[in-house]
Amino acid sequence: MYAELRDTAGELAGILWREHTVYRERGGGVVIRGEHVRRWISLAPTGGKDRALLRAGRILDGGRRRRRARRWSST
Predict the structure, then answer these.
(1) Residues 65/21, Cβ–Cβ less than 8 Å
(2) What's the pLDDT band for 59 if we cut at 50, 70, 90?
(3) pLDDT value of position 5
(4) Cβ distance 30 to 5 under 8 Å?
(5) pLDDT, greater one: 53 or 62
(6) Which of 44, 46, 38 is nearest to 65 (CA)?
(7) CB neighbours of residue 73 within 10 Å
(8) Residues 6+ apart with CB under 8 A from 5
(9) Apex CA 11: angle with CA 50 and CA 59, to 5°?
């Protein structure tokens, strides 16, 4: 599942932001950071097939993330 999330995150990052960093989270998901737009997006497995938890937010001063969560399905 991690490989699929990483591929999806890479494609999404390329579409959204010309400058981005994609890295792995402790929980097995991936994070896309767009420092120049001060935003981040996280994709995490939910345990269901073809489903992911999508979170997004702003990068706050000091590098902390403020988040909002939504469940997303690729169906």
Answers:
(1) no
(2) confident
(3) 86
(4) yes
(5) 53
(6) 38
(7) 11
(8) 29, 30, 43, 44, 45, 52
(9) 95
Mind listing the pLDDT tens digit for each residue in 13-46? 999 888 999 989 888 899 999 988 899 999 988 8
Contact 50, 73 (CB under 8 A): yes
Assigned token pair, 23: 């890295």
| pLDDT attached to residue 62 | 75
Count CB atoms within 10 A of the CB of residue 58.
Answer: 13
Q: Is 43 exposed, middle or buried (0-12, 13-18, 19+ CB in 10 A)?
A: buried
Cα diameter, the chain: 37
Query: In the structure encoding, which two tokens stand for residue 19, read together?
Result: 């400058």
